Amino acid sequence: MTERDNAAFDSFEEEYDPLADDFDSSIFDGIEEDDEAVTEFLMPDPSRIEAVEGTPSRQSDGYRQRPAEERTAELFTQMKPYRLMLLQLIRACQQPRTTEEMLQQFEQLHANFKSTYSGANLLSMLEAAGAIDCIAEDGTPYAQVEVEPVVKTDENGVEYLAPGEAPTMLWVAAEAGLAMVEANNPQQRIQQLFAKEAVYLPIFKRILRLAAADEGVSMAQLSGAIDEDPLIQEPRYFSQHFLKNLERHEAVAWQGNRWHTTPLGRQLLEEMADVDDSYSPSEAAEQARIRAIAAESTMGAVW
To answer: Which of 58, 142, 263, 299 could form a disulfide with 134 if both were Cys (CB 3.0 to 4.6 A apart)?
Structure first.
């Protein structure tokens, strides 16, 4: 057997030895032994992400020195998909509420509205924007509360100072937040939506009508009544698209695992009396069945 020429590999570095004296183990700093068992996706650490130049942090003094009305309006502009949730959180604390109460309110909203933010995240954003305030039970801004140390005695009878118990923190709507709630005009906004998407008025009307039943309507029922409508085949839409628009404009709400038409939605339904909605879900289902049979019968055809 001819001896193999390994000269081409002579320039490679020596074998990597992590046990060598000169091995830099700092590359493993911050990695715990149990980290290997973590398999879920971890969000990036915000403290290690370089901030975009000219964009002040919501926690910076420069940001908080701006008028609360300006900060609140900016937050609602940046968080358009969360507009309804933010408004409802502000409404929930028109009277002082504990953190537990506010998080319970968030969970009720979150049951339908799938948020990538936690309740604590949204409360922090609203507080930084000046839409809500953190206060103690006596009304003092919570940031100004000073917790006095208390004197305790250890097992040997020696007295020492220990941190005192912090007072309960309450959340309460601020003037900027209340102004945003007052300025919210879902009826005007939904009329603008209807004008923009007038061709889909029959779809909007059908959702409102079905959800107006005493028992409400399920998502499956809505899908069956809407998704095969020729009106939304090209471009292709599904019932969720129209449902979310109605929810964001406060015309429908999720209650008891069903969709229900709100008072605003019922008013809109009356105003849409002249909108023609002659679509028949049962007829559409029959047409879909016929198409499916036709498709199966042609699968084995030789052309």
So the answer is: 142
